[in-house]
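Subject: complex prediction, re-run

Hi both,

The earlier run crashed halfway through, so I resubmitted it with identical inputs.
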Amino acid sequence: MSNAVDNDVMNKIVALCKRRGIIFQSSEIYGGINGFWDYGPMGAPLRRAVEQCWWKYMVEDRDNVEGLDSTIICHPEVWRASGHLAQFSDSMTDCMVCKKRYRVDQLEDPHHCPNCGSDKLTEPREFNLMMKTFVGPVFDEEHAAYLRAETCQPIFVDFNTVRIATRQKLPFGIAQTGKAFRNEINPRFFTFRSREFMQMEMEFFCRDSESMEWYNYWREERRKFYTDILGIEDGKLQWHDHDKLAHYAKAAVDIEYKFPFGWGEIEGIHHRGTWDMSRHCEYSKQEKDCKYFDQDTKESFFPTVVETSCGLDRICLMLLCNAYDEDTAATQKEGMEEDVRIVMHLPARVAPVQVAVMPLSKKLEEKAQPIRQALRKKFRTAYDDSGSIGKRYRRQDEVGTPFCLTVDFDTPNDQAVTVRDRDTMTQERVGIDALASYLDERIYK
Ligand code: GAP
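This time it finished cleanly. Structure:
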């Protein structure tokens, strides 16, 4: 991650997220808990919508990818087999003078503290990142279990059950979304590095001979997801191929976005070879469940895995950073005195509110409410009848509502409303009967 930090923009985004109930600290009245974040009334629908886009794109729209929803706690042997218990750790050092703690691999000069300049750093120590708990009434090592550190391991473990249930043949994938937990030493950059976060992962099982073709295919599919579905410009993404690969892998790449605090990874696409399936075979001793039997050749072998792995919270943070704008356009025409509006240009398909219905006067409620009730069947809607229209537009701009509909005193006569576009600020009269299709075309284009 580069050092060019735009604190100003980041601070504004964090403040907006709190003020408008998008994302804020967990347990705030107790002082918060480092690395844990709550999604409020405007954040929860955003995160769900992004997750739903991913699920539709990766699972529902494909014949060769199946969905899974596994438990967060698995048999502890899963994490022994995956290598997490032995190796999933960060090497840390403490400054004995100012007491700051650092990841050794992130120190530019491993001999001096970047905070106070002292050379009194402790010998590096390993910290395991797995979150530990106990299952059952006895709190001893025999009953220890772990919250999953990645969502993909249960996919490997369930491979054969899913394959039999769905009658899939190689090549095919299994996908899941859900919580993952890591006891990160330095949670930072708002939600970017959290201790509890959501992952969206797809493991694609194939023959080794065709695995690089699939790797390249998924690279392109994932690029399209960010550019075509989420509207991120190509130039704002960077593809960072790994120079150092795990011994079993043929290729790996990180997709990075330019956050205000520098380039940061949002997704990894990894060729994982047969590592995971062979390790689970070794630890579970269930060869039949970990290998694939080819009916044609009568051969049994470990499938090779190509993985796409992204963080939902990081994608939401990317969308929020990408959307944030202070617009000095002609806002006065909307009756506002100040000439700066904060506007979130969120993609309409994931905006927490897609359509806001605003009667010009409370007297128009009888006309406006049925319009809102009809539209909420298809879209995420809000109803706002308080304050000047200009102020109401600003409130919706701040949470990224792409369309505001004004119901006015002409509406009962012409059976139409004024639709105001967040980005262009243009207004158009649209008949009530045509509203649903008018909005649908623009929101899901
Ligand atoms: N199964 C492979 C795997 O978990 P990873 O690079 O450790 O790979 C994948 O994680 C993605 O999960 C990352 O690209 C990132 O988007 C997200 N992620 C990882 N650690 C995170 C954290 N502490 N907070 C938020 N997101 C995280």
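Residues 150, 152, 182, 184, 193-194, 197, 199, 201, 265-268, 307, 309-311, 313-314 surround glycyl-adenosine-5'-phosphate (CB under 6 Å).

- K.
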